Batch of 3 targets.
Target 1
Amino acid sequence: MAIRVAAAVIEREGAVLVTRRLAGTHLAGLWEFPGGKCEPSETVQACVVRELREELDVHAAPGATLLVTRHTYPAKTVELHFIACAIEGEPVPQQGQEMQWVAREALDALEFPEADAALIALLRSR
């Protein structure tokens, strides 16, 4: 069974907000779009709002789902829901993770999980 994950695509002045996975986590050290696992009864929209509050201390307003993709890693399968989000407030990492705003055309310079490849291709084509 796939793990449902909601990830926020937050854009500002042509750049996208990304965070780095913490040491000791699955895919540690890779860059990602902020978000996390959905609780069993939680919608992906509610999940992304909760995760952004917990991870970056901002209020998120989820918009359109940009992409839903499924990827199987050796240890697990994830179903990723990438959601365009507007945020209120300035994001501040709450768990010690690195964070940066990256121009769409520079996304290829960072190392992301394989599951994010389709979204990165979509963002670069816009």
Note: The chain has a mean pLDDT of 94.
Target 2
Amino acid sequence: MKATIDIPEILYRQVKARSALEGRAIRDVTIELYERWLADATAPTAPLADPSDAATAWLYRWDELGEEIARRAVDPRTSRDILLADRR
């Protein structure tokens, strides 16, 4: 399916430049982002103490992102752990 969307020109230029550096088509990047967004929307979330507390929601999301990055990391150890292991 084809769709036309209006996005800010500066944003499009940044996406175009980064996708070119990575050797990817903008179409592929867009599809990946839609898939991630849908997966995130269906993921269970922990209940907030106060659902109207935007700061708590923001911190919770950053915590989730940190956990995801740690899972995807080639070496999930912290920099400190790596340095300590190297010293031994």
Note: The chain has a mean pLDDT of 80.
Target 3
Amino acid sequence: MILPKTIDFPPLLKEFIIKETGNINPKLNIKINFLDNKPYRFAKDNEQANVSLSMGLGKPISPSLYEGLNI
């Protein structure tokens, strides 16, 4: 697995950073503790990651709680 080096900030924090810094596309650096000999690594500068990581709620256990919300 090839992991990306950065991901998007959570939406509310992203809006705050945009207003404070003017950077329209802030990214959060990923930190992973590589203790074991795992089959994953970070993508190099000109390499494409084959795993997609994103901020989100995932699949809710009870979708009825989120009816009518645009998330």
Note: The chain has one domain: 2-66.
